[in-house]
Amino acid sequence: MGQVAELLALAALWGASFLFMRLSAHEFGAAPLAAVRVLLATLALLPIVLMQGQWPALRQQWRPIAVVGLVNSAIPFLAYGYAMIWITGGLASVFNASTPLWGALIAWLWLHDRPGRARVTGLALGFGGVLWLLADKAGMRATGDATHASWAALACVLATIGYGFGANYTKRYLAGVPPMAVAAGSQMAAAAWLLVPALMTWPVVQPTPVAWAAVGVLGVACTGLAYLLYFRLIAHVGPARAMTVTYLIPVFAMGWGGIFLEEAVTPVMLAAGSVILLGTALAAGLWTPGLKSQRT
Questions:
Q1: Whole-angstrom Cα distance, residue 151 to residue 130?
Q2: At a CB cut-off of 8 Å and minimum separation 6, what does 134 contact?
Q3: Pairwise CA distance, residues 77 & 37, whole Å
Protein backbone atom coordinates (compact mmCIF):
# COMPACT_ATOMS: atom_id res chain seq x y z
CA MET A 1 0.00 0.00 0.00
CA GLY A 2 2.91 2.30 0.71
CA GLN A 3 4.29 1.80 -2.78
CA VAL A 4 0.90 2.57 -4.32
CA ALA A 5 0.78 5.77 -2.29
CA GLU A 6 4.28 6.70 -3.48
CA LEU A 7 3.27 6.03 -7.09
CA LEU A 8 0.22 8.27 -6.75
CA ALA A 9 2.26 10.97 -5.02
CA LEU A 10 4.85 10.89 -7.80
CA ALA A 11 2.17 11.12 -10.49
CA ALA A 12 0.55 14.02 -8.64
CA LEU A 13 3.88 15.87 -8.38
CA TRP A 14 4.86 15.34 -12.01
CA GLY A 15 1.34 16.17 -13.12
CA ALA A 16 1.50 19.37 -11.07
CA SER A 17 4.77 20.33 -12.76
CA PHE A 18 2.79 21.29 -15.87
CA LEU A 19 0.56 23.53 -13.75
CA PHE A 20 3.51 25.31 -12.15
CA MET A 21 5.24 25.72 -15.51
CA ARG A 22 2.07 27.33 -16.84
CA LEU A 23 2.04 29.71 -13.88
CA SER A 24 5.66 30.80 -14.38
CA ALA A 25 6.65 30.30 -18.02
CA HIS A 26 5.12 33.52 -19.33
CA GLU A 27 7.00 35.67 -16.82
CA PHE A 28 10.32 33.84 -16.74
CA GLY A 29 10.68 32.64 -20.30
CA ALA A 30 11.80 29.13 -21.25
CA ALA A 31 15.54 29.24 -20.46
CA PRO A 32 15.40 31.16 -17.16
CA LEU A 33 12.55 28.94 -15.96
CA ALA A 34 14.43 25.74 -16.77
CA ALA A 35 17.65 27.07 -15.22
CA VAL A 36 16.04 28.09 -11.93
CA ARG A 37 14.20 24.78 -11.81
CA VAL A 38 17.31 22.60 -12.09
CA LEU A 39 19.28 24.87 -9.76
CA LEU A 40 16.68 24.46 -7.03
CA ALA A 41 16.54 20.71 -7.67
CA THR A 42 20.33 20.58 -7.30
CA LEU A 43 20.17 22.40 -3.98
CA ALA A 44 17.52 19.91 -2.80
CA LEU A 45 19.36 16.76 -3.93
CA LEU A 46 23.03 17.57 -3.39
CA PRO A 47 22.95 17.45 0.45
CA ILE A 48 21.43 13.96 0.24
CA VAL A 49 24.20 12.81 -2.09
CA LEU A 50 26.83 14.18 0.29
CA MET A 51 25.20 12.58 3.33
CA GLN A 52 25.02 9.22 1.55
CA GLY A 53 28.69 9.43 0.56
CA GLN A 54 27.96 9.30 -3.18
CA TRP A 55 29.98 12.35 -4.18
CA PRO A 56 33.03 10.26 -5.29
CA ALA A 57 30.82 8.30 -7.71
CA LEU A 58 29.38 11.53 -9.08
CA ARG A 59 32.82 13.04 -9.57
CA GLN A 60 34.22 9.90 -11.18
CA GLN A 61 31.39 9.67 -13.72
CA TRP A 62 30.88 13.38 -14.33
CA ARG A 63 31.24 13.19 -18.12
CA PRO A 64 28.38 10.74 -18.84
CA ILE A 65 26.34 12.36 -16.07
CA ALA A 66 26.80 15.71 -17.83
CA VAL A 67 25.41 14.17 -21.02
CA VAL A 68 22.40 12.88 -19.09
CA GLY A 69 21.93 16.35 -17.63
CA LEU A 70 21.79 17.78 -21.14
CA VAL A 71 19.43 15.29 -22.80
CA ASN A 72 17.32 14.30 -19.79
CA SER A 73 16.87 17.68 -18.07
CA ALA A 74 18.27 20.76 -19.81
CA ILE A 75 16.75 20.16 -23.26
CA PRO A 76 13.39 18.71 -22.08
CA PHE A 77 12.86 21.38 -19.41
CA LEU A 78 13.74 24.08 -21.92
CA ALA A 79 11.36 22.57 -24.47
CA TYR A 80 8.49 22.27 -21.99
CA GLY A 81 9.15 25.78 -20.69
CA TYR A 82 8.62 27.07 -24.23
CA ALA A 83 5.61 24.83 -24.86
CA MET A 84 3.83 25.96 -21.70
CA ILE A 85 3.65 29.50 -23.06
CA TRP A 86 1.47 28.37 -25.96
CA ILE A 87 -0.41 25.17 -25.09
CA THR A 88 -2.12 23.72 -22.03
CA GLY A 89 -0.41 21.57 -19.46
CA GLY A 90 -2.90 18.78 -20.06
CA LEU A 91 -1.98 18.55 -23.74
CA ALA A 92 1.74 18.64 -22.96
CA SER A 93 1.30 15.83 -20.44
CA VAL A 94 -0.35 13.66 -23.10
CA PHE A 95 2.69 14.14 -25.31
CA ASN A 96 4.85 13.32 -22.28
CA ALA A 97 3.07 9.97 -21.99
CA SER A 98 4.79 8.90 -25.22
CA THR A 99 8.23 8.93 -23.53
CA PRO A 100 8.46 5.11 -23.23
CA LEU A 101 7.71 4.84 -26.96
CA TRP A 102 10.83 6.82 -27.79
CA GLY A 103 12.79 4.84 -25.22
CA ALA A 104 11.74 1.58 -26.86
CA LEU A 105 12.47 2.85 -30.39
CA ILE A 106 15.91 4.18 -29.45
CA ALA A 107 16.73 0.94 -27.61
CA TRP A 108 15.79 -0.94 -30.79
CA LEU A 109 17.84 1.22 -33.14
CA TRP A 110 20.84 1.92 -30.89
CA LEU A 111 21.14 -0.92 -28.39
CA HIS A 112 19.67 -3.54 -30.75
CA ASP A 113 17.05 -4.41 -28.15
CA ARG A 114 14.78 -6.03 -30.70
CA PRO A 115 11.10 -5.87 -29.77
CA GLY A 116 8.56 -8.61 -30.33
CA ARG A 117 5.33 -8.27 -32.28
CA ALA A 118 3.42 -6.78 -29.36
CA ARG A 119 5.96 -4.00 -28.90
CA VAL A 120 6.15 -3.23 -32.62
CA THR A 121 2.36 -2.95 -32.63
CA GLY A 122 2.59 -0.65 -29.61
CA LEU A 123 5.16 1.57 -31.29
CA ALA A 124 2.94 1.94 -34.36
CA LEU A 125 -0.14 2.71 -32.27
CA GLY A 126 1.64 5.13 -29.98
CA PHE A 127 3.28 7.12 -32.72
CA GLY A 128 -0.03 7.20 -34.55
CA GLY A 129 -1.53 8.89 -31.50
CA VAL A 130 1.32 11.40 -31.37
CA LEU A 131 0.85 12.25 -35.05
CA TRP A 132 -2.88 12.65 -34.42
CA LEU A 133 -2.20 15.20 -31.69
CA LEU A 134 0.36 17.00 -33.83
CA ALA A 135 -2.06 17.24 -36.74
CA ASP A 136 -4.81 18.52 -34.47
CA LYS A 137 -2.65 21.29 -32.99
CA ALA A 138 -0.95 22.21 -36.24
CA GLY A 139 -4.26 22.64 -38.04
CA MET A 140 -4.39 23.95 -41.55
CA ARG A 141 -4.28 27.65 -40.73
CA ALA A 142 -1.29 29.96 -40.93
CA THR A 143 -2.35 32.14 -38.02
CA GLY A 144 0.08 33.07 -35.28
CA ASP A 145 -1.70 30.97 -32.66
CA ALA A 146 -1.70 27.85 -34.83
CA THR A 147 1.96 28.32 -35.68
CA HIS A 148 3.01 28.75 -32.06
CA ALA A 149 0.88 25.77 -31.01
CA SER A 150 2.53 23.64 -33.67
CA TRP A 151 6.03 24.57 -32.53
CA ALA A 152 5.00 24.01 -28.92
CA ALA A 153 3.73 20.53 -29.77
CA LEU A 154 6.98 19.74 -31.57
CA ALA A 155 8.91 21.00 -28.53
CA CYS A 156 7.02 18.47 -26.40
CA VAL A 157 8.01 15.71 -28.82
CA LEU A 158 11.65 16.87 -28.64
CA ALA A 159 11.46 16.65 -24.85
CA THR A 160 10.17 13.09 -24.92
CA ILE A 161 12.89 12.07 -27.40
CA GLY A 162 15.43 13.50 -24.96
CA TYR A 163 13.93 11.48 -22.11
CA GLY A 164 13.97 8.32 -24.20
CA PHE A 165 17.59 8.81 -25.25
CA GLY A 166 18.61 9.72 -21.69
CA ALA A 167 17.17 6.50 -20.28
CA ASN A 168 19.06 4.37 -22.80
CA TYR A 169 22.26 6.36 -22.39
CA THR A 170 22.04 5.88 -18.63
CA LYS A 171 21.49 2.16 -19.07
CA ARG A 172 24.54 1.85 -21.31
CA TYR A 173 27.07 4.15 -19.64
CA LEU A 174 25.93 4.60 -16.03
CA ALA A 175 24.92 1.09 -14.98
CA GLY A 176 25.96 0.53 -11.37
CA VAL A 177 26.30 4.23 -10.53
CA PRO A 178 24.19 5.18 -7.47
CA PRO A 179 20.87 6.59 -8.74
CA MET A 180 20.96 9.61 -6.44
CA ALA A 181 24.42 10.52 -7.72
CA VAL A 182 23.03 10.47 -11.27
CA ALA A 183 19.96 12.46 -10.25
CA ALA A 184 21.83 15.21 -8.40
CA GLY A 185 24.73 15.30 -10.85
CA SER A 186 22.45 15.54 -13.86
CA GLN A 187 20.59 18.47 -12.31
CA MET A 188 23.88 20.20 -11.52
CA ALA A 189 25.07 19.62 -15.09
CA ALA A 190 21.76 20.88 -16.49
CA ALA A 191 22.17 24.08 -14.46
CA ALA A 192 25.59 24.57 -16.06
CA TRP A 193 24.23 23.88 -19.56
CA LEU A 194 21.42 26.40 -19.07
CA LEU A 195 23.39 29.17 -17.33
CA VAL A 196 24.36 31.21 -20.39
CA PRO A 197 20.98 30.92 -22.21
CA ALA A 198 19.21 31.89 -18.98
CA LEU A 199 21.39 34.96 -18.41
CA MET A 200 21.03 36.04 -22.04
CA THR A 201 17.23 35.85 -21.92
CA TRP A 202 16.55 36.83 -18.32
CA PRO A 203 13.29 38.84 -18.24
CA VAL A 204 13.59 42.62 -18.15
CA VAL A 205 10.56 42.84 -15.88
CA GLN A 206 11.18 40.80 -12.77
CA PRO A 207 8.72 37.91 -12.26
CA THR A 208 5.98 38.36 -9.70
CA PRO A 209 6.02 36.61 -6.30
CA VAL A 210 3.41 34.17 -7.61
CA ALA A 211 5.70 33.15 -10.49
CA TRP A 212 8.67 32.79 -8.12
CA ALA A 213 6.60 30.66 -5.77
CA ALA A 214 5.50 28.47 -8.69
CA VAL A 215 9.05 27.88 -9.91
CA GLY A 216 10.14 27.24 -6.33
CA VAL A 217 7.60 24.43 -5.93
CA LEU A 218 8.48 23.22 -9.42
CA GLY A 219 12.18 22.92 -8.58
CA VAL A 220 12.06 21.59 -5.03
CA ALA A 221 8.92 19.43 -5.03
CA CYS A 222 8.14 18.54 -8.65
CA THR A 223 11.79 17.89 -9.53
CA GLY A 224 13.90 17.28 -6.42
CA LEU A 225 11.34 15.41 -4.28
CA ALA A 226 9.93 13.67 -7.34
CA TYR A 227 13.37 12.24 -8.15
CA LEU A 228 13.61 10.87 -4.62
CA LEU A 229 10.24 9.12 -4.95
CA TYR A 230 11.05 7.84 -8.43
CA PHE A 231 14.32 6.21 -7.45
CA ARG A 232 12.73 4.76 -4.31
CA LEU A 233 10.12 3.12 -6.53
CA ILE A 234 12.79 1.77 -8.88
CA ALA A 235 14.59 0.26 -5.89
CA HIS A 236 11.41 -1.31 -4.49
CA VAL A 237 9.42 -2.44 -7.53
CA GLY A 238 11.84 -2.19 -10.46
CA PRO A 239 12.00 0.23 -13.41
CA ALA A 240 9.19 -1.34 -15.46
CA ARG A 241 6.59 -0.94 -12.74
CA ALA A 242 7.93 2.46 -11.70
CA MET A 243 7.45 3.58 -15.30
CA THR A 244 3.70 2.99 -14.99
CA VAL A 245 3.59 6.46 -13.41
CA THR A 246 3.55 7.67 -17.02
CA TYR A 247 -0.06 6.54 -17.32
CA LEU A 248 -1.19 8.59 -14.33
CA ILE A 249 0.57 11.89 -15.07
CA PRO A 250 -1.93 13.13 -17.73
CA VAL A 251 -4.83 12.43 -15.37
CA PHE A 252 -3.32 14.63 -12.67
CA ALA A 253 -2.06 17.25 -15.13
CA MET A 254 -5.48 17.63 -16.73
CA GLY A 255 -7.09 17.68 -13.30
CA TRP A 256 -4.79 20.37 -11.89
CA GLY A 257 -5.13 22.45 -15.06
CA GLY A 258 -8.90 22.16 -15.05
CA ILE A 259 -9.25 23.04 -11.36
CA PHE A 260 -6.81 25.94 -11.12
CA LEU A 261 -6.52 27.29 -14.69
CA GLU A 262 -9.85 26.20 -16.19
CA GLU A 263 -8.04 24.44 -19.02
CA ALA A 264 -10.30 22.57 -21.41
CA VAL A 265 -9.86 18.89 -22.18
CA THR A 266 -10.82 18.23 -25.81
CA PRO A 267 -12.18 14.98 -27.26
CA VAL A 268 -9.11 14.70 -29.50
CA MET A 269 -6.82 14.95 -26.45
CA LEU A 270 -8.72 12.13 -24.75
CA ALA A 271 -8.93 9.93 -27.84
CA ALA A 272 -5.33 10.42 -29.02
CA GLY A 273 -4.10 10.16 -25.44
CA SER A 274 -5.85 6.80 -25.08
CA VAL A 275 -4.16 5.57 -28.27
CA ILE A 276 -0.77 6.76 -26.98
CA LEU A 277 -1.26 5.05 -23.62
CA LEU A 278 -2.37 1.82 -25.28
CA GLY A 279 0.65 1.90 -27.57
CA THR A 280 2.92 2.72 -24.65
CA ALA A 281 1.61 -0.23 -22.65
CA LEU A 282 2.40 -2.57 -25.54
CA ALA A 283 5.76 -0.99 -26.43
CA ALA A 284 6.96 -1.01 -22.83
CA GLY A 285 6.02 -4.66 -22.43
CA LEU A 286 3.55 -3.85 -19.65
CA TRP A 287 0.61 -5.41 -21.50
CA THR A 288 0.74 -8.23 -24.03
CA PRO A 289 -2.83 -9.32 -24.84
CA GLY A 290 -2.46 -12.62 -26.64
CA LEU A 291 0.82 -11.58 -28.29
CA LYS A 292 3.95 -13.22 -27.00
CA SER A 293 7.01 -11.03 -27.00
CA GLN A 294 9.77 -12.58 -29.12
CA ARG A 295 12.98 -11.00 -27.99
CA THR A 296 16.32 -12.11 -29.37
A1: 14
A2: 150, 153, 154, 157
A3: 8
Report the distance separating Cα 32 and Cα 9, nearest Å. Answer: 27
Dihedral sign for Cα atoms in the order 39, 41, 43, 47: negative
Torsion sign, CA atoms 275, 22, 14, 196:
positive
Instruction: Please say whether the beta carbons of 207 and 33 come within 8 A.
Output: no
**Cα-based distances in Å from 164 to 30, 63, 127, 261:** 21, 19, 14, 30
pTM of the model as a whole: 0.86
Q: Which of the four pLDDT bands, split at 50, 70 and 90, describes residue 143?
A: very low
**How far apart are alpha carbons 284 and 277 in whole angstroms?**
10
Backbone angles phi, psi at 139, to 5 degrees: 65, -170
Structure confidence by residue, pLDDT tens digits, 21-70: 999 999 999 999 999 999 999 999 999 999 999 999 999 999 999 999 99
Reduced to 3 DSSP states, what percent helix, strand and coil does the chain have, rounded to the nearest 5? 80, 0, 20
35 C-beta neighbours (distance < 10 Å), count:
30
Could you read off the pLDDT of 238-256 as tens digits, one per residue? 665 666 677 788 889 988 9
Q: Which of 80, 49, 18, 39 is nearest to 228 (CA)?
A: 49
Name the phi and psi angles at 294, rounded to 5.
-120, 85
The domain spans of the chain are 2-283
